[in-house]
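Please supply some protein, with fold tokens.
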Amino acid sequence: MKLSNMFRPTNFKRTIFFLVGDIFLSVISIYLSYLLRFNFDIPNSFFRTIPDAILLVLIVKIPFLYLFRQYFVTWRFYSFVDAKNLVKAHLISYIFILILFIATLNQLHIPRSIALIDMFISLTFLGGFRFFKRILVETSFTDHNPTIFIGINNKSVDLIKSALRGEIDIYPIAVLDENPNVTYLSNIKVFDMNELENMENIKTAIITKELSQKELDKLTNRLTKLNIYDIKIATNFRNKLKDISIEDLLARKPKDIDTTEIQKFIKDKIVLITGAGGSIGSEIVRQCDKFGAKQIIMVDKCEYNLYKIANEVKAIKVLCSINSPILEDVFKEYKPEIVIHAAAYKHVPLCEENPKSCIFNNVFGSIKFINLAIKYKVKKFVNISTDKAVRPTNVMGASKRIIEKYAKNVPSGETEIVSVRFGNVLGSSGSVVPFFKEKIANNENLPVTHPEITRYFMLIPEACSLVLQAGAIAKGGELFILDMGESVKIRDLAQKMIDLSGKDLKIEFVGLRPGEKLYEELLINDADLKTKYESILIINEPQIDFETLKNNIEKLKDDIKILPKIVPDYKGSLAN
């Protein structure tokens, strides 16, 4: 056994320590009671009764102390409630002793006044013993993560108990709630939330109650103003905590994700996913695995990304770009029933610097892929698009708009082709949140392009679930958009991340990048149709002549300047 484990506090060790201490102090208390009773000169006839008095008091008092739970309290949380129970245990035990004296006509010849004197001395000794130990322990723990809990519930109780057992590196100070209906929770004092600003020297706050996003945001602002930056959320897993993140404060969390519909769509199907190693693609892979896909085919040109997701999900791995000739062999061999097309160049400034590469990959690679799906009679093809396709000001957005048009109008035979458009997802590779996190980790100010720039945000898992859900209800030819909620100012996002970090950093405005919009849009016009899910809408777009579209796209290979002719509302650099 390790030496550290021998001295690790346990309930059993704590009980034995209390019990031995109480017996020792009770013996001293009785002897001192005799000394006081006889002015420090105990006659021999009464001195011989001391062992009997000690035995009687211990036989009666110890069980009552046990009954009033004096041996189940952790030292550093010995409270006023526990002190009251100590008094009750003494009163009842000594009343019981006096009753025994009367009932037995005091055959032991113990002076009755000894019981009264000993009761007060014992209370002083045993109570002082507990509070002195608490003071010693508090002295060693007060700088050890003083923590408050927000919420009266079982999560708080479990976490406090874990802290008492030394399983969590925190020191519980108080519990706060909007409507406290108890005074103590696991021996920790409960306060009204209005008392939060009066709390001092708190390092950590643990939120155990369910809060709406606005309530959570408001509470976080209150805590950071009090210089409490270590804010954690209790998860649904026992004693598991996670640091609060910008995703918790800003992401829209749709309430109408229909897992039953998704499972019907995916279960026992052969699913091919492009861009399978990316932020969106990898999550779609995980969800297809979760919902029981018969076989998953992962396509990605990035070796490392494909390797990472392959370590999580058992699937067929195809290392190639969507322009690769080997993809036709994949369709021939595995005969996918569902295709989720998530592969694309998405970084706006890089696409602006490399427009031909962007067009080659995003347009011609996607068209080739769609045509393969039609040729091999894939049942359903889901094209993932972006809000940057709306009135695009950059090549990336225009390339995605072209594929939306192609997917809508191509003669698809037995293949149902649908596009799903949504905004930014929080935490995706190359996006603003990980970029800001890296800057904060390096103690650098956060660069924001413009004070008024806004973006829509959604969590990756929720966005991917809605993509699959849209695919499930699609009949072919639809352009779905996901309801992204309210747009968020990037300046506000940056400030919240700085506040959560507790660092003295600033926001620096650096100017819009080439092709970048101030405001992203999800709708081209207001003629949108509702589905049975509030989070999924359909854009009502008219059909256009496919042959004309196809011919114009072919011309792009030789003349990228024709881009505005294919996307008339494109306002980027190639439109000039």
